[in-house]
């Protein structure tokens, strides 16, 4: 349960960070958001996988557990295909961008850090999904496949941690979110976050609008 909560909460924070700052709203990060959605789907399947392992899929429970296991396996396969496709597209997109930037301008340290971050994510994917591929290749029993499915969830938990530690832009914005420093979010996507006005300034602005409205209403009533 703790693994599921870490994965769901961590990837949800990735969504929130992406929505709050325009700096994160890039072509490459669209793929990152897609990967986070696949990770949330994977984490949501963890209770079913754990239940199958604890009950050992015996005869007494097979009648009602089989449909859940079928959903679990289907969701994990969808997540695997989505993650693999997304990582491939990230690599292709990143290689094209890096090649163009190297020909045009010098490579900055931020670009190097972002590329390293994506490499770490790809390595974590290979490590966590490797046992699943092997168990399917050797046609292992259901219990082994269930245990390897749990390893997949670890990858879904690791990804947001990698973003928060290694990705310079995500690290900065996640720090602002966790510390509730909304006004310090760089390139905010929403006006309320961008302004960061104190409550007194907001109240004064509202007062001016109300006075203007009341004056307009009084003028109309005088004319009538």
From TrEMBL:
Gene Ontology molecular function: G protein-coupled receptor activity
Residue ranges that the Swiss-Prot or TrEMBL entry lists as coiled coil: none
Location in the cell: Cell membrane
Membrane topology: Multi-pass membrane protein
Pfam families in the cross-refs: 7tm_1
Transmembrane segments: 31-55, 118-138, 144-165
Name of the protein: Orexin receptor type 1
């Amino acid at each position: 349960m703790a693994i599921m909560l870490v994965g769901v909460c961590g990837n949800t924070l990735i969504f929130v960070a992406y929505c709050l700052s325009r700096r994160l709203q890039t072509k490459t990060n669209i793929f990152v958001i897609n990967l986070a959605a696949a990770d949330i789907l994977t984490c949501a399947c963890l209770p079913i996988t754990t239940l199958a392992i604890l009950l050992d899929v015996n005869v007494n429970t097979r009648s009602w557990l089989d449909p859940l296991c079928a959903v679990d396996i289907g969701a994990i396969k969808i997540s695997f295909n989505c993650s693999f496709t997304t990582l491939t597209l990230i690599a292709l997109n990143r290689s094209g961008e890096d090649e163009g930037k190297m020909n045009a301008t010098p490579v900055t340290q931020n670009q190097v850090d972002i590329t390293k971050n994506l490499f770490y994510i790809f390595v974590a994917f290979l490590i966590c999904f490797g046992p699943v591929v092997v168990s399917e290749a050797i046609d292992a029993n259901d219990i082994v496949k269930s245990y390897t499915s749990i390893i997949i969830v670890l990858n879904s938990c690791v990804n947001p941690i990698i973003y928060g530690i290694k990705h310079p832009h995500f690290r900065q914005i996640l720090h602002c979110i966790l510390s509730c420093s909304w006004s310090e979010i760089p390139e905010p996507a929403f006006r309320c976050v961008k302004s960061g006005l104190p409550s007194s300034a907001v109240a004064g602005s509202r007062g001016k609008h109300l006075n203007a409205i009341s004056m307009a209403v009084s003028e109309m009533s005088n004319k009538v």
